[in-house]
From TrEMBL:
Part of the tripartite ATP-independent periplasmic (TRAP) transport system. It comes from Albidovulum litorale. The lineage of its organism: Bacteria, Pseudomonadati, Pseudomonadota, Alphaproteobacteria, Rhodobacterales. Residues 7-418 form the TRAP C4-dicarboxylate transport system permease DctM subunit domain. It is found in: Cell inner membrane. Its main location: membrane. It is a multi-pass membrane protein. The complex comprises the extracytoplasmic solute receptor protein and the two transmembrane proteins. It holds the Pfam family DctM. This is TRAP transporter large permease protein.
Length: 427
């Protein structure tokens, strides 16, 4: 049955059917051919109970926050400011790509939105300043993945919702690995450009006065991040309430810099509706698929298979990591999360692993899926912003950053405290 399910999933995705619809179709197929019960009779109640959860209200708020910052021109100001602070390093403007992605990850909560933001702002500079298109594009695609690690993260909200774990603790757990990944991306870029200076383009050094003035464009974003995260950890607001405060703060920042207009607001609202609708369709489709899998006994069979391998906890985790790497080649990231979490997380907990820690490990693996072909969304976002050249250039450019992510996976397994230090310290 699992064989037919995998073939069906890949076949429907190859037909370019939206992922959310694919998940519903697979659920209908299981109901029709493998289940003795009429599962579709519970579809309406299942969809409603999934979508009306108050935790998920945070998703459109965080999406709108990012939309306002991007469409009001704050992204361009942030990029130019960071350019003045990091372009003296070997690699030049490539570091501004990573630094801007890191900063916007701390507000937008979406990897695709972060990659699209940085790509739109940065790509016009690449050819003009003589940068290698592979490394430059790969850094944007990889930097964009930080949007689902550094809090606030939409994917961590979904993980917390599905596993009933603390979202504030997940946010804390993602902070150190997220910043560590950003610094590692910068370090690997420096090493590459020291070995091959021609890849790094022009290094630029700005006067201290220019650098200090640029800080004025960074202060609002830093303040907004501090307000969102601070209100959550102080207990003054839930993640949903903090997201609403963040939207108000983003609106205020946009107004301060003169970026508010009726056209901008309409575009931000439409973008929010489209992205939120896509996310919710995937969540509802995956919930229905998981319901049919459980009813048909497939989930139990898979759990028994994995549990019956007789592996040590470490070997078991290696199998799980390998499964996620392979599935990440073919399945869109949010879908991969919501389909596998109900099956995998209980087994991981049985092996003695912390669900908060595993959530962060899973996010790193999901980040890899965003920049690995054939369905790595960030690859298509960056290539679309380029508007020319080959997709293979973007893929090759991400290879050093994929190696960094694999190193982070190994580090998290060897030293779980990387993720658990802050959550444990805040208790």
């Amino acid at each position: 049955m699992i064989y037919y399910l995998t073939i069906g999933l890949l076949g429907l995705l190859c037909l370019s059917i939206p992922v959310g619809i694919v998940l519903f179709l697979l659920g209908f197929g299981i109901d029709l051919f493998f289940s003795p019960f009429p599962l579709t009779k519970g579809l309406g109640n299942l969809v409603w109970s999934t979508s009306e959860n108050s935790t998920l209200i945070a998703i459109p708020f965080f999406v709108m926050l990012g939309e306002i910052l991007v469409r009001s021109g704050i992204a361009t100001r942030t990029y130019e400011a960071l350019d003045r602070w990091v372009s003296w390093l070997p690699g030049g403007l490539v570091h501004a790509n990573i630094a801007t992605a890191t900063m916007f990850s701390a507000t937008s909560g979406s990897s695709v939105a972060t990659a699209a933001t940085v790509a739109t702002v940065a790509m016009p500079q690449a050819e003009k300043l003589g940068y290698d298109p592979k490394l430059f594009s790969g850094a944007i695609a990889a930097g964009g993945t930080l949007g689902i690690m550094i809090p606030p993260s939409i994917n961590l909200i979904v993980y917390g919702f599905l596993t009933q774990t603390s979202i504030p603790r997940l946010f804390l757990a993602g902070l150190v690995p997220g910043i560590a990944l950003a610094l590692a991306f910068i370090l690997i870029t420096v090493l590459i450009c020291m070995l091959r200076p021609s890849l790094g383009g022009q290094r630029r050094v700005f006067a201290l006065s220019q650098m200090m003035r640029a800080l004025l464009d960074l202060i609002p974003i830093i303040l907004l991040f501090s307000i969102i995260i601070g209100t959550i950890y102080k207990g003054w607001a839930t993640p949903t309430e903090a997201a609403a405060v963040g939207v108000a703060g983003a609106f205020g920042i946009a107004a301060l810099f003169g970026g508010i207009s009726m056209a901008m607001l309409v575009e931000a609202i439409l973008g929010t509706v489209k992205i939120t609708s896509m996310i919710m369709l995937v969540i509802m489709g995956a919930s229905f698929l998981n319901f049919t899998l459980a009813s048909a006994g497939i989930g139990r069979e898979l759990q028994e298979f994995l549990g019956g391998l007789g592996l040590s906890p470490l070997a078991f985790m290696m199998v799980i990591v390998l499964i996620y790497i392979v599935l990440g080649f073919f399945i869109e990231t949010l879908s991969l999360m919501v389909v596998t979490i109900p099956i995998v997380v209980p087994l991981v907990v049985e092996q003695g692993y912390d669900p908060i820690w595993f959530g962060i490990l899973m996010i790193v693996l999901i980040e890899m899926a965003l920049i690995t072909p054939p369905v790595g969304l960030n690859l298509y976002v960056v290539q679309g912003a380029r508007g020319k050249g080959k997709m293979s250039e973007v893929m090759l450019g991400t290879l050093p950053f994929i190696a960094v992510m694999l190193a982070m996976v190994a580090a998290l397994i060897a030293f779980p405290g990387i993720a658990l230090f802050l959550p444990d310290a805040m208790q």
